[in-house]
Amino acid sequence: MIYPQLERETKSLQVAEDIGDGYKFLQAQEEYGHVITGAAGIIIKKYFEDQETAHGNDIPMNWIGPKVRRWARLQLPTGEIACCAWKEKQTAPQDVRRAHYVKLSLENRIEFAEVEFYFHAKINEETQHLALISLISRPDEDLFSESFHTVWSVTELGDDGLQVVNAKSILSVVAVIPHNHHVEETDKRFFIWENIGSDVGLLSDAAGAVDSDE
């Protein structure tokens, strides 16, 4: 089972940066910036290029991408702490918190994602507070309907779901739990469970978003 550990922050951490609106980047942080490689690096580089060109700024021909200093955790206004895959995948299995799956609002629609890491970006001389995420698929519509809008059955999109988002678009930490509703052995599915600091909820609040897609 993949589940989040709820962690309420009641004291100041040794390494933290307030990014406003009740959000804070928390330790660990990389000491030096470096260019991210692979699929993640391609997505980050494109984000910077799109943002800079949108402001009328030129991109150098041989530019290989920005140097990024990764942050490991994000404290939300609710007090929850969202971790990231970057650090959790370096941790021994018995110590992993599995708190790097989140609910977020993108373009006025609820989405769910795995957080790869958090970082700052200086774009058009302004600092942006960002997260690299890997989106989770939209739910299986048949199962969602048959379960009266209670079971949000999804698959992970991997590199195809990579996206840079505003860190403040993250709303809460969620659990991502394996289930075997589908009989295909290669069909690895999960369902999303919200139970963070409130009564158990199974995402009925997202029903409208799914129905509007049909």
UniProtKB/TrEMBL annotation:
Lineage top rank: taxon: Eukaryota
Supply the source organism for this entry.
Answer: Laccaria bicolor (strain S238N-H82 / ATCC MYA-4686) (Bicoloured deceiver)
Name of the featured protein: Predicted protein
